């Protein structure tokens, strides 16, 4: 089996630590690290660490794009950059040591011109038939629209299972097209259905509404530290996250998707694959910055669940 990920708006994540964030003070930063970032890129990094064949398609431009290429080469993640004129963005992630709080600052991304959007449509339409899973993960870049995102999903060749992890109107258009699997959190699910989801029964009902109208075959609802709610036409299963020492939550959701898709490619049933995805997400929070997970941690957590 083979997996391709799509990252339309990648980034370099610059992570730093400070003792305490105070106004009007010059703050000394330590533990300064740069990591490749963006939803689909992180998913591909996780899948690669699990020794599963994967290829990352991503938007590449400017000096940050060249740096991102080098990061992926260094991690031996097979990838295919889609060239654009403007530069890939850089985000800032600040860990406040005193409180343990994480502050995330997202910078403006590049604008995709019409010709570059068409290049993406062509790239997606030519995904090889041998690909089993195509994972769209992350935000949309400037210049694109949710309608274009829907067109991108419609361009996917028949027979490939599409997994989507995005939000707001892009996610809504994905459901209009109809995909295999989505992974919203509770807030994103509330935005989709237009109401508060205050208890477990309400979450189940909202997930089933999406499935019943053909938006997705599988809904994996992220419950944060509570794990996930797996919903299909056959019913529901809540999978709790194993307790671990928290170092960084950045990329944990991407790790869940990566572990899930890797396990599906091994032939695991959906329930077990989702359980492995939760274990992989838990393994990711055990590492600093966006280092993501170690294979041995994910496997051990899965065994203990």
Task: Provide keyphrases for this structure.
305 residues; alpha/beta; UDP-N-acetylmuramoyl-L-alanine:D-glutamate ligase; 13 strands; globular; transferase; ATP-binding; PfkB_dom
Describe the structure.
The chain has 305 residues and is of the alpha/beta class. 38% of the residues lie in helices and 25% in strands. The protein has a nine-stranded mixed β-sheet with strand order 5-4-1-8-9-10-11-12-13, sandwiched between helices. The chain has a four-stranded mixed β-sheet with strand order 3-2-6-7. The mean pLDDT is 94.
Short description:
With 305 residues, the chain is α/β, with parallel strands linked by helices. It is 38% helix and 25% strand.
Number of domains in the coordinates? 1
Principal-axes geometry comes out as: globular
The overall pLDDT, averaged over residues, is 94
CATH superfamily: Ribokinase
SSE series: EEEHEHEEEHEHEHEHHEEEHHH
Question: What integer value in Å does the Rg equal?
Answer: 19 Å
- Number of helical segments? 10
Number of strands: 13
Q: What strand line-up does the widest sheet have?
A: 5-4-1-8-9-10-11-12-13
Return residue spans where pLDDT drops below 50 for at least 5 consecutive residues: none
Architecture, CATH level 2? 3-Layer(aba) Sandwich
> Which fold does the CATH topology refer to?
UDP-N-acetylmuramoyl-L-alanine:D-glutamate ligase
Question: How is the biggest beta sheet arranged?
Answer: 9 strands, mixed
Content of β-strand:
15-25%
- Secondary-structure content class: alpha/beta
For the record, the CATH class is Alpha Beta
């Amino acid at each position: 089996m083979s997996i391709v990920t799509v990252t339309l708006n990648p980034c370099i994540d610059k992570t730093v630590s400070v003792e305490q964030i105070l106004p009007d003070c010059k703050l000394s930063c330590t533990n300064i690290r740069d990591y490749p970032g963006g939803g689909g890129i992180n998913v591909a990094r996780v899948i690669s660490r699990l020794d599963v064949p994967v290829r990352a398609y991503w938007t590449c431009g400017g000096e940050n794009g060249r740096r991102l290429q080098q990061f992926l080469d260094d991690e031996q993640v097979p990838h295919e950059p889609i060239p654009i004129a403007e530069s890939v963005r850089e985000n800032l992630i600040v860990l406040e040591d005193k409180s343990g709080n994480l502050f995330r600052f997202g910078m403006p991304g590049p604008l995709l011109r019409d010709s570059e959007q068409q290049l993406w449509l062509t790239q997606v339409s030519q995904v090889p038939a041998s690909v089993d899973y195509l994972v769209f993960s992350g935000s949309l870049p400037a210049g694109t629209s949710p309608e274009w995102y829907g067109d991108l999903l419609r361009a996917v060749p028949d027979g490939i299972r599409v997994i989507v992890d995005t939000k707001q109107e892009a996610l809504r258009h994905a459901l209009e097209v109809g995909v295999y699997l989505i992974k919203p959190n509770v807030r994103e699910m509330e935005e989709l259905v237009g109401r508060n989801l205050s208890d477990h029964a309400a979450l189940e009902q909202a997930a089933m509404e999406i499935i019943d109208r053909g938006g997705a075959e599988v809904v994996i609802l992220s419950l944060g530290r509570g794990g996930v709610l797996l919903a299909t036409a056959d019913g529901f299963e809540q999978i709790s996250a194993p307790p671990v020492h928290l170092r960084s939550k950045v990329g944990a959701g991407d790790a869940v998707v990566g572990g899930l898709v890797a396990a599906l490619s091994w032939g695991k049933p959906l329930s077990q694959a989702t359980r492995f995805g939760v274990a992989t997400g838990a393994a990711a929070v055990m590492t600093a910055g966006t280092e993501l997970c170690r294979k041995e941690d994910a496997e051990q957590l899965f065994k203990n669940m």
